[in-house]
Amino acid sequence: MATNVSRPHGCGVGVASFYYKLCDLDSAWGVVLEALAAGGVVVSLVFFMALLALVPFTRDKNRRGSVALHAVFLVCTAGLFGLTFAFIVGEDLATCVSRRFLFGVLFAGCASCLLVQGARLSVLARTNSAPPAWTWCVGAAALWAVEVVINAEWLIITVARQAGARPCDVPNPDFAMALIYVMLLLVGVVAAGASVLAGKYTQWKTEGARVLASGLLSVGIWAAWVVMYVYGNSEASWDTPTLAMALVANAWVFLVLVTIPQVCCSPGDDPDLGANYGVDYETILKERNPHILFMENKTFSMDDPPAGSKPVSPYNNYSGHARSGVYQPTELALITRAGTNPPGSTIPRVSAHSADICTGSTPSQHEDTPSVVYANGSSGCVLHRTSQW
Questions:
Q1: How far apart are CA 346 and CA 300, in angstroms?
Q2: Which of 62, 75, 319, 322 is a good FRET partner for 177, with 20 to 30 A between their CA atoms?
Q3: DSSP 58-80
């Protein structure tokens, strides 16, 4: 880099001229894109960890099957934000190779995941079931590998054709032509998202609408930057900002329309979460065997027993009152009320000396002892009680 470049406003003394666009306050596009790209990297990493943390709470196997695709999609989106810094800093061999090679590769990764996800949602919207998740991951990897081969071949041929030429010196139309495959993938994303809306299972149409919206906005962004990059820029100095703006804008579209709703809304839309984690006591009782339930404890049951045989519980007559609140007359109360009892009513008493009689001992004679007649049988002693009242 040239050493006679004046230090711009906002850059410190120790900052190399290679990084002037990161701190130059006179050219605000670099500072703004730097802030947006840094924020996008942080948000992508946070949602990546949140997506993995929510896997144990996703009970629907169809929704869990898309976690791998969304994880790869988030990695590629974070790569788009990171690639923005290569367009803000100065040009050398490393940054030029990164710009020309990773631009199409990272966009192809995002578009491949979206296209496969749209095709998967299209199948779910029609049959409510889909093939295993690994088949979709293999399909996305195959689509992405095509762009990797195309970009690698294009970069090698372009650099080898002009000895000593840098990848940044490649004409703008040639760079745009190398990305035709990515454009086809974006068109396929739009077609796949539209096909989801034609299905009969409505629970998948919301995700299909998000895929369709992200595809349409991506096509619009690509059409705008290609036209500006190839035909609209009268000055070559705006070529790099155009590509950087396309990266940041499209990456934020992916985050806002695809990633954030997927992470925030999918657990709430999962019907199995409410059935397994939001259950109440009544739901638990209904799922159990009614016969076993009422044999255990009928007091706390919330359902009626079946019309057939009804097991009797010892708590059946329990009214909930304390025992001290129920009147239970004692023997002394019955004696004092003996005068008011009708004729013939007696209070039976048993002598405490009955055991001595049965063993052959002579009972003691007391005046207040009731008359007791004992008869010895062959099997033991039989006691007959007569009332004194």
A1: 42
A2: 75
A3: ---HHHHTTHHHHHHHHHHHHHH
Residue type present at position 174? D
Q: State the pTM of this model.
A: 0.66
Q: How many Å apart are CA 161 and CA 300, to the nearest integer?
A: 86
Question: For residues 205 and 197, is the Cβ–Cβ distance under 8 A?
Answer: yes
pLDDT per residue as tens digits for the range 245-272: 999 999 999 999 999 888 887 554 444 4
User: Coil, strand, or helix at residue 381?
Assistant: strand
Could you tell me which residues are beta bridge partners of residue 381?
376
Cα–Cα distance measured from residue 111 to residue 103, given in angstroms and rounded to the nearest whole number: 12
Contacts of 241 (CB under 8 A, 6+ apart): 29, 30, 33, 87
Say which residues have a Cβ less than 8 Å from residue 356's Cβ, sequence separation at least 6: 362, 363
Q: Enter the DSSP assignment of 326.
A: S
Task: Give the whole-angstrom CA distance, residue 240 versus residue 91.
Answer: 10
pLDDT digits (tens, 9 = 90+) for 195-243: 998 888 888 888 889 999 999 999 999 999 999 888 876 666 678 888 9
φ/ψ of 266, rounded to 5, equals -65, -45
In sequence order, what DSSP letters do the residues of 213-238 get, joined into one string? HHHHHHHHHHHHHHHIIIII-SSGGG
Nearest to 71 by CA among 87, 83, 90, 58: 58
- 273, 267 contact by CB (below 8 A): yes
Q: Do the beta carbons of residue 167 and residue 100 sit within 8 Å?
A: yes
DSSP symbol at 25: S
Provide the residue type at 371 as one letter.
Answer: S
